[in-house]
Amino acid sequence: MTSGMTLPSDQDSSGRTFGPEELEAVRECLNSGTLTSTRGNFVKQLETEFARTLGAGHAWACSSGTAAVHCAVAALSLEPGDEVITTGITDMGAITPILYQGAIPVFADVDPYSFNVTARTIRDRLSDRTRAIIVTHLFGNPCDMPEIMKLADSRGIPVIEDCAQAFLASAGDRCVGTIGRIGCFSLQQGKHITTGEGGLVVTNDDALARRMYLFINKAWGYGDARPDHYFLALNYRISELQGAVAVAQLNRLEQVVASRIRLAAALTAELSSVPGISVPAVTPGTVHTFWKYCLRVDDHVIPGGTVALGAALKDFGILSAPRYIQKPAFCCQIIREQCTFGTSRWPFTLARPEAVDYRRELFEGTWDALEHVLVLPWNEKYTDTHINYLADSIRTAVATLTERPAAARH
User: Fold this and answer.
1) Is there a contact between 133 and 158 (Cβ–Cβ < 8 Å)?
2) pTM here?
3) Please, which residues have CB within 8 angstroms of residue 246's CB and are 6 or more apart in sequence?
4) pLDDT for 195-221, tens place per residue?
């Protein structure tokens, strides 16, 4: 292994922005003796300040990004067998809520350079059973929301934005999460800000806000004149301890995002002329907030493509992720073999054959994207020295791979 520097990691304090503010907030919370959000103030403060930060009418905290997507899907009151269009390049936590609500995830292809769904790929999957669209702003790069919203609005289909990786990303003059009907965010360990686990949902729709608030709270109408458990729902609350950390973290968000954007611009400038490498493709008119920094690797230029380059970077102590995920979500066992509730296969038993058709030729962009993407480790604690080290290591690795004699490659 080549000697080199150790990069900050978002899995520990080297790459996370914790400080005395978080400690003081947790201490205040513990001293109060109130750790439940139904009686405390930190979670309420988080919700108020997050809504203000995004320019949203309502924000509710919940236990994870998965819970946030579940709240959003549940708020739409779908019928069993309804279809929700989504992407195959996403975390399974953004898909299982669809199934839990008895709906069918219908996968749209993606643009192989932005890695995002588009209005065109969504249009290809619409049917008379489509009741919602979930767009994922992957890696912090916003989807082409004007075109997607034009399509969705023309059909009266609500759009849920999965912004787990896209805090403060924007399209036009609006933050992602406030463009569709509902926005979903994650506070998991590696996100822009974190409480370890946690999530947030935002909306400008009063009725959807009410529905999501209830879903987080077992559908119990706290504060109602005659409260009851109104419908099937879970307990997705977070504790005041998480709320305390999140309030302190939220105060750092703009600084965190600005650092990630500046560092990404510096790395892009360093790598733009490296043969066989394409720097991130940012959707025009948007602000990309770089949850991760992704390269597209041309395997016609760099022998072995992403896998070979990722292996070469290990010699410099850089642990990248070739392909991001090893296979599209629809190739995972839960979808492929319809492993849901016992042996029932429900709700897949309600699906149209076309909705569960996952032939490779229908997803050329998805496979292309995964086969050529290399995800670099990334966080706001990088310095210019780290960026120079990353760039020099990548240039050296590419040069080694492209200059290696042909006989040595076989």
Assistant:
1) yes
2) 0.96
3) 42, 43, 46, 61, 187, 193, 195, 198, 238
4) 999 999 999 999 999 999 999 999 999
Calculate helix-pair angle for 253-271, 384-403, nearest 10 degrees: 30
Residue type, 228: D
User: Measured between alpha carbons, how far is residue 194 from residues 78, 111, 162, 276 in Å?
Assistant: 31, 29, 16, 35
Bridge partners, residue 287, by sequence: 170
CATH of 13-252, one of 3.40.190.10, 3.40.640.10, 2.60.40.10, 3.30.70.260: 3.40.640.10
Find all residues with CB under 8 Å of 207, minimum gap 6, and list them.
none
d(CA 51, CA 59) in angstroms, rounded, equals: 5
Give the domain ranges of the chain: 13-252, 253-324+368-409
Mean of the per-residue pLDDT values of the chain: 96
* φ, ψ at 219 (rounded to 5°): 60, 25
Q: Which CATH class is domain 253-324+368-409?
A: alpha beta
d(CA 60, CA 183): 11
How far is it, in rounded angstroms, from Cα 136 to Cα 22?
Answer: 30
